[in-house]
Structure to design on (569 residues):
């Protein structure tokens, strides 16, 4: 006997409403038996030509559909907002929460029983997971997969990471503009996400470490035929998951988030994982905090991929991918259920490494302790983060004089001035780029080194801001300072000439002025007038939480799994 499913509330009714729900779907040529009570599987697709990283997802949706039909389900693909990281202004992150709302309300409003999330580009994966978690129907992920390795002049070049290097080389007069332009064609040679361990591949790796996708999903190149086969298998699996009632809240438990934090350290993952994991956890009711990220502190860097290492995602795949990393983490992994219904340890079973320079062993890591460091102190009372694996070791303990840029406009107008009063020991401070100050807190925290220093050969300095940085970026960069300047955080009170002390080892970020002076400056401080006065951006600014809480909107935290009532037909 067929189990009564959620979709029966749409397609199982022998009345006017049922007629309407079925009849309109039949205009696409679906036969009667598609509505016989089989699981309806929504394929939530962020495909868009404006999101080149996700441009392969139409093909993968067909693979998922094959698997769903084969397993006796009824697949229905639907679009949601797509977030093209390199194409959207002011920043795709402004719209992560809007995508999450789109995903949540689309899943809730339609007659579906289970969901396959097709995402890839940086904000699409977390936005989709946030939305799906708030409805909590059985859900599984298929990622876009990374682009093939970039190739130029006989070298492998990596998305993002080499762009930062090339643009600094042009500014230093070490690379011609002609070469710079030629490299852009060699960098992006296929569909797929950035092939460095940027935010997209980081989030795909963490989704695998959390058990929200099938094993090997993170690293298979976008154009590898095995990814299409994985999509097919995922379509089969989601039909079984509906019958087994395995929901995001069963998989994305505290233990799963802890595994994601450990894996993020081992792969040298993006700092953006912090705001995304915090936001996803908030949707499933896991009380994850910034402090939990200290768990990764003593985890060695195992994956030798840019920006922390030298290889690319294609190499990571051929070396064995995430199953090898999970195998290396071994007993450090928490026991946690996956979308396959078993324990995450099964994802590591039998994993063999085929290139020990790409995926190191625990005994021979690239760096002994690679986890993100959480910093606190009077400059960041609610926390800030730094990624030591992508930083210059000698700068992780540093005291210097601040040079302050009050806004991104101030930075752009002045950073290349010949008379900028900075030295390699200066600490560059950028204000006004947090969630409210520059809605979406864009990836400008790895601000370029002042031109006069670049020309002297300086390639890294301590930089402090309330912004984020691209997962493909590197440097001794303190990010996500909370509270942000626009919310009245101490960052707003820093002046050029103040001394700042960074100690990554001690987890401290201190503004070396007296409490009295800080109080005097605070009393005189005024926030900038709001830049946005209408529409979604205004709603975002009015409701966004600080970075240490995941930058979700305050009214979206949590979930609502109640049945939809008050139908209108
Ligand atoms: Fe889309 Fe990097 S810009 S994944």
């Amino acid at each position: 006997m067929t189990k009564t499913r959620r979709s029966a509330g749409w397609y199982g009714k022998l009345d006017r409403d049922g007629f309407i729900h079925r009849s309109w779907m039949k205009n696409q040529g679906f036969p009667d038996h598609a509505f016989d009570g089989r699981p309806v599987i929504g394929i939530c697709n962020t495909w868009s030509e404006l999101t080149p990283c996700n441009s392969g997802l139409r093909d993968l949706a067909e693979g998922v559909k094959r698997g769903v039909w084969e397993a006796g389900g009824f697949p229905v693909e639907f679009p949601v907002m797509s977030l093209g990281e390199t194409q959207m202004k002011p920043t795709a992150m402004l719209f992560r929460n809007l995508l999450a709302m789109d995903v949540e309300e689309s899943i809730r409003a339609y007659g579906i029983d289970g969901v396959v999330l097709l995402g890839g580009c940086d904000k699409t994966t977390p936005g989709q997971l946030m939305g799906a978690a708030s409805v909590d129907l059985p859900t599984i992920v298929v990622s876009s997969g990374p682009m093939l390795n970039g190739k130029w002049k006989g070298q492998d070049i990596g998305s993002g990471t080499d762009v930062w290097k090339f643009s600094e080389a042009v500014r230093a007069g070490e690379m011609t503009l002609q070469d710079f332009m030629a490299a852009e064609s060699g960098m992006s040679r296929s569909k797929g996400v950035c092939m460095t361990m940027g935010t997209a591949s980081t989030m795909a790796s963490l989704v695998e470490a959390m058990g929200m996708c099938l094993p090997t999903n993170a690293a298979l190149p976008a154009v590898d035929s095995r990814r299409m086969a994985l999509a097919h298998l995922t379509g089969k699996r989601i039909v079984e998951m509906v019958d087994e009632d395995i929901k995001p809240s069963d998989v994305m438990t505290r233990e799963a988030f802890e595994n994601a934090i450990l894996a993020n350290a081992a792969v040298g993952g993006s700092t953006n994982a912090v705001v995304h994991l915090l936001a996803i956890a908030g949707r499933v009711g896991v009380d994850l905090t910034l402090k939990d990220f200290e768990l990764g502190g003593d985890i060695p860097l195992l994956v030798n991929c840019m920006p922390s290492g030298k290889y690319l995602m294609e190499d990571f795949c051929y070396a064995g991918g995430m199953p090898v990393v999970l195998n290396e983490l071994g007993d450090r992994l928490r026991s946690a259920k996956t979308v396959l219904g078993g324990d995450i340890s099964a994802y590591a079973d039998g994993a063999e490494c085929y290139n020990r320079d790409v995926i190191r062993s625990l005994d021979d890591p690239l760096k002994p302790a690679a986890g993100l460091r959480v910093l606190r102190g009077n400059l960041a009372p609610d926390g800030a983060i730094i990624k030591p694996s992508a930083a210059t070791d000698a700068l992780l303990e540093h005291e210097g004089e601040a040079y302050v840029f009050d806004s991104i406009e101030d930075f752009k107008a002045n950073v290349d001035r010949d008379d900028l009063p900075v030295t390699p020991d200066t600490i560059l401070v950028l204000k006004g780029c947090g969630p409210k100050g520059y809605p979406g807190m864009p990836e400008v925290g790895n601000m370029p080194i002042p031109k006069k220093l670049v020309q002297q050969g300086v390639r890294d300095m301590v930089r402090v801001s309330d912004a984020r940085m691209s997962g493909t970026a590197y440097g001794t960069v303190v990010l996500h300072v909370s509270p942000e300047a626009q919310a009245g955080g101490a960052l707003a009170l820093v002046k050029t000439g103040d001394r700042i002390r960074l100690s990554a080892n001690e987890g401290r970020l201190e503004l070396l002025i007296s409490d009295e002076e800080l109080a005097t400056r605070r009393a005189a401080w005024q926030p900038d007038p709001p830049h946005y006065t209408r529409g979604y951006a205004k709603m975002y600014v009015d409701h966004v939480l600080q970075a240490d809480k995941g930058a979700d909107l305050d009214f979206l935290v949590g979930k609502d799994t109640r049945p939809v009532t008050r139908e209108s037909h």
User: Anything to note?
Assistant: The chain has a mean pLDDT of 95. Residues 443 and 468 are 5 Å apart (CA to CA).
